[in-house]
Structure formats: structure tokens, C-alpha cells
């Protein structure tokens, strides 16, 4: 039986609530997965999905306005794709690789947004508060005991990726408004 977590974030005047189901045995919801299911990790004849390639493509499709909703969908679907056509070891490997990908993306965004000024006192206060939270580790949801640590880590990193992307969008919006 899976459990759900609800996470809320304030983003530039938009309250975003993300509901994530974390199930036992890599159930539905936010989880993580690797690049392509190949080799011993892939079951014979199973369809192979380049999860990281799919995720990157999905992330490129998100729009500046209300993009958080699609970002959450990209993370959730990528985690779900790690379950398709893989044995248990393949699922764990996929989720671990996707978690590493989220982590690398988070670090890239953190570097890119460092020290940015949004040209507004209240926006700067909101942005800096969210930035500090993410630098301190971001959303740290508790996972059910039956959820593997690798899956929990990937889910947290995916959630944090959506928050980093929101900060990135705030900068883009401020640039457009200049």
C-alpha cells in the first residue's frame, strides 16, 4: 500500500501544491530511474525506454507560465518509466541514475542563479528565501519505511528540481519585464 505526501511552495505569487504518491515496490508516484534499461537489468524482450533522455525532452517542453505543473508531470512520469520492462535490480538502477541526473540538474541551476537580482524588494525576499531553502537541501519529505532509500532520495531530488526550475523561471520573468 502506498502513501501520499503533499508539499507546498510559494512561487512568485503562485501557491504550488505537489501531491506525490510513494508506493511500496516502486509504486506510482515520484520515484527515480536510469538512462536506458539494457543488459542484465533489462528483462528479455522488454521495451527499453531512455528515461533520462525522455525526461530532458519533457523538461524542454515546459512553458514559462505555470510550468511547475508540467515539471511535476515530467518528474512523475520519468519515475514511473523506471518501472516499465525492468526487473527489481533494473528498477533500482534506473531510479538511482535518474536521482543522479536530478541532482546534477539541481547543481547546474544553483550555479546559474547565484546572486541574481529580481529588481523588486518583495520578489527578492521571496526568491532569496526559496533559494536558501534549496541550498540547505530543499524539500525533505519523510518516506514510508517500505520505500527504498534510493527511491526516496530520487523523489526528493525530483521535487527539488521543480523548485529550482521555479527560481529559474522567476529570473527569466524578471528579465522579460526589464
Describe the largest sheet: 2 strands, antiparallel
**What is the molecular shape?**
elongated
Helix content: 40-55%
Q: Whole-Å distance between the termini?
A: 50 Å
| Count of strand segments | 2
Topology as a string of helices (H) and strands (E)? EEHHHHH
Mean of pLDDT: 73
What is the radius of gyration? 17 Å
List the total number of helices: 5
Give me the side-by-side strand order of the main sheet: 1-2
Structural class category? mainly alpha
Which stretches are low in confidence, meaning pLDDT under 50 for 5 or more residues running?
1-47
Beta content: 5-15%
Give a verbal description of the structure.
- This protein is elongated.
- The model is unreliable at 1-47 (pLDDT under 50).
- 54% of the residues lie in helices and 10% in strands.
- The protein has a two-stranded antiparallel sheet.
- With 178 residues, the chain is mostly helical.
- The relative contact order is 0.20.
Main attributes of the structure:
178 residues; mainly alpha; 54% helix; disordered N terminus
Layout of secondary structure:
Blueprint: E1 3-11, E2 14-22, H1 51-61, H2 67-81, H3 88-113, H4 121-135, H5 149-177
Summarize this structure briefly.
This protein is mostly helical.
